[in-house]
Amino acid sequence: MNSQKFLKGAFAGVSLAALLAACSPEQSTGQAPPEATEAAKVSSPADRPATDEVIYFVLPDRFANGDPANDRGGIAGDIADHGFDPTHKGYFHGGDIKGITEKLDYIEGLGATAIWMTPIFKNKPVQGNPGDQSAGYHGYWITDFTQIDPHFGTNDDLKALVAAAHARGIKVIFDIITNHTADVIKYLECAGPDTGKVMPEQADCPYRPLGEPKYTAYVPAAEAGIKKPEWLNDTRYYHNQGNSTFKGESSLYGDFAGLDDLDTDNPEVAAKMADIYKWWISEFRIDGFRIDTARHVNDEFWQSFAPAIIEHAKAEGLPNFYMFGEVYEFTPKQLSHFTNVAKLPAVLDFALQWTIQKTIVGIPDAGNQQAIFSTGFQSEATPKAGFAPTQALADLFDGDIEYTGAAGKSATFLPTFLGNHDMGRFGFFLRQAHPDADPAQLLKRAELANALLFFARGVPVIYYGDEQGFTGDGGDQAARENMFPSQVDSYNDNVLIGSDATTAEDNFNPDHPLYRQIAALAAVRKAEPALMRGNQRTVAAGDTPGIFAFDRTDLASGSELVAAINTSTEEASAVLAVANPDGLTPVLSSGMAELSPDGTLRLAPLSYILYRRTN
Questions:
Q1: Which residues 6+ apart lie within 8 Å of 482 measured at CB?
Q2: Catalytic: which of 326, 400, 473, 560?
Q3: What DSSP string describes 538-584?
Q4: Are 586 and 3 in contact (CB under 8 A)?
Q5: Helices marked H in 434-512 — which ranges?
Q6: How many CA atoms lie within 13 A of 3 on its CB side?
Q7: pLDDT value of position 32
Q8: For 71, 98, 232, 517, which has the most beta carbons within 10 A of its beta carbon?
């Protein structure tokens, strides 16, 4: 057979219709295609395994404002009381549950099959010392675990969102917290009972090791009984050891930046926390949980909590309830502890994120590293500037064998991602590493990373706004821009990738090149069982930037695909360790690709290709 040449824009086989449907503006802004609508009528999204999902990760406050009447959460007073200030990146901006419901067309058009929202439980509206205050717009300062924060709407609004999403075959995943509550408890040794001082500084209440007397805990009169359920107001259910240093035992028993650390060693606390989240499953038909700060909770808690939640979900008719923990570790060996020992079903794959950053983004020179690594998301003490070889990806995937202990689940269950609301956006990493790169190269690198995310094993997660080329200025508040028009100056001066728009405008554009690319990748993934559930094997890697290739094989159907990316800015070639290369038919590509009968693949710079075996 002659060498195959595959150019951008060419598609093959049954994927053509799926890709065109996924990429069309009509679908992105209107109704789902007929076949998707019919499928939704036939089966519930609850029947779909977690491996088949494409997750869209949203901060409700920053996504869409469907009801301006709830912007202040029904709280009188000024900003220090209600926390609403759309000009400040650390306060509420007005997004809510109704806004997400109104934008389901946009989310469905992207190809997402699940929505993961940051916590939407009632929060302490504003927290911090005078001059260092911010709002609970992010949802991680919970006081009431029984209702939606009024800034986001009502429990009925949530039920309406879940029903509308499920009608489209889209799952809804909650972000939950078991490690801590809002900062309400104070310590007499650090602040007198009349001061009500909020103390985020570790120096005010340093960690006291186990075996030493705990701090004398109390609740200021103004906040007595603020937490729900009622048992959370009892200081006996907290560790009360002072602020964590995030080292040694303090990582488990210390207060996370002053937040009240629950005594998760107490079996009564474990049972009560499980009861809280079981109620949300029963009442709202939630499809999964992302678990915040999972590494700061003892293994024994997860060993009881995780199976209790999974069994409850099954009893409620949710056999594929998806639960994954946030563990800031960067090797498969470190991460797999939480699946093999703690028995969480899955963890976010920070190891893959870091490896993609080293190979596709590259590590900037020492002068530009601080902004990227200041939050501690690095696995090497002194990262070497430049690009890691593609062998780094092969080594990472070789580590998948570590994930053996979570009820038979493998690395195919790990949620994979490029950036997030804490560490920063992928676009930020790109701009930091390549401050002088032309816009076309930045777009190609973003597309290359997306392709790897969708072709490789794992469950791809898209951080809202990345499909519109958002970049941000760093991590945390700097990575949480509005999709609806922003009034934050530090957001609106950002240069986006693949677009001349700014965050001062509405950014629900289905014609953005990254939105269209992700929609196309999601359509291919949905059509190919091997991409969702198949085994993965490296077939080409090297000791320089260049071609990384792997095959995906679905044992149930016998389908096989081969994917390849070129991380180099030069054309690259490699011999693929596959049998019968002539039997591979191209499915999707971003540039020139030529596969010879001997298995030699030539691939254009910063491009990708996906093949399907047809004989």
A1: 62, 63, 93, 95, 488, 491, 503
A2: 326
A3: EEE--SSSSEEEEEEE-TTT--EEEEEEE-SSS-EEEE---S-GGGE
A4: no
A5: 439-455, 489-492
A6: 12
A7: 35
A8: 232
Q: How many residues make up the chain in this entry? A: 615
H/E run at residue 253: helix 250-253
> How many angstroms separate the CA atoms of 487 and 127, rounded?
22
Name the phi and psi angles at 102, rounded to 5. Answer: -65, -20
pLDDT score at 405: 62
pLDDT of residue 201: 41
Parallel/antiparallel/unpaired status of strands 114-117 and 55-58:
parallel
CA-closest candidate to residue 406, choices 345, 477, 342: 345
Catalytic, 292? Answer yes
Sign of CA dihedral 199, 204, 207, 213: negative
For residues 486 and 438, the answer to whether their CB atoms sit within 8 Å is no
Q: Are 530 and 552 in contact (CB under 8 A)?
A: yes
Considering 96, 144, 292, 481, which one is annotated as catalytic? 292
Q: Kindly provide the b/e burial profile for residues 22-40, where b requires at least 16 CB atoms within 10 angstroms of the residue's own CB.
A: bbbeebbeeebbeebeeeb
Q: How far apart are CA 451 and CA 408, in angstroms?
A: 27
* Joined tokens for residue 503: 């965050």
pTM value is 0.92
Residue 38 has a pLDDT of 41
Which distant-in-sequence residues (6+ apart) come within 8 Å of 492 by Cβ?
Answer: 486, 502, 503, 504
Q: Please check whether residue 31 is in contact with residue 106, taking contact to mean a CB–CB distance below 8 angstroms.
A: no
Query: In the 3-class helix/strand/coil scheme, how is 302-344 assigned residue by residue?
Result: HHHHHHHHHHHHHHCCCCCCEEEECCCCCCHHHHHHHHHCCCC
Q: What are the 10-residue block averages of pLDDT along the chain, 615 residues in total?
A: 36 37 38 38 80 98 98 97 98 98 98 98 93 94 98 98 98 98 94 53 77 96 97 98 95 96 98 98 98 98 98 98 96 96 96 96 63 42 76 97 74 97 97 94 98 98 98 97 98 97 98 98 97 97 98 94 98 97 97 97 98 90
> Is residue 326 annotated as a catalytic residue, yes or no?
yes
Phi and psi at 435, nearest 5°, equal -65, -25
pLDDT at 206: 94
